[in-house]
Structures are given as structure tokens and as C-alpha cells.
Structure prediction request, 79 residues.
Amino acid sequence: MKTIALTVDGVAVTVVEGASAAAAVAARTHVFHHSRTGHPRGPFCGMGQCFECRIRINGRLALACLERASSGMAITTGA
Ligand code: FES
Prediction:
């Protein structure tokens, strides 16, 4: 099984090749961002409809459930 290395909030994370960016973030934390009222939020639908998995990938706003993790990717939570 081949693995790839990336970072989530500056911390090194390793996931299997083909994993989603959501899986990479979940390897580090279950909190992808916070609601306006301060509640922790994370993936709900897993198919790009709820927008609860918002992250930034190399500075670009993205939905973690729709992005494939790639080597060297820099993911930031809290988007
Ligand atoms: S989990 Fe719902 S949009 Fe990603």
C-alpha cells in the first residue's frame, strides 16, 4: 500500500494514496472549522452538498470531501 505525505495545519500527516483530503484532515482532527456561533463543524454529507468540510488547500478554499489528497499538499482548517 503506497502512502503520501502532506501537512494539516503545519503538522505532517500520512495517508494512503487515493484518500480524500477529508480523510487526511480527519487523521489529525475532527474539527474542520467552526460555525459563526463557535460550534465545531466537520464533514456531514461526504458529497459536496453541506459545505461543512470547508478547508484551504495551498491557500485555495476547497471542500475536503471532493478533493483527493496529494503529496506535499498543505491543508489548513478553519476556512
Ligand atoms: S462533507 Fe458535505 S460538502 Fe463535504
Q: What stands out?
A: The chain has a mean pLDDT of 96. The chain has one domain: 3-76. Residues 3-76 form a domain with the Ubiquitin-like (UB roll) fold (CATH 3.10.20.30). The helical segments are 21-26.
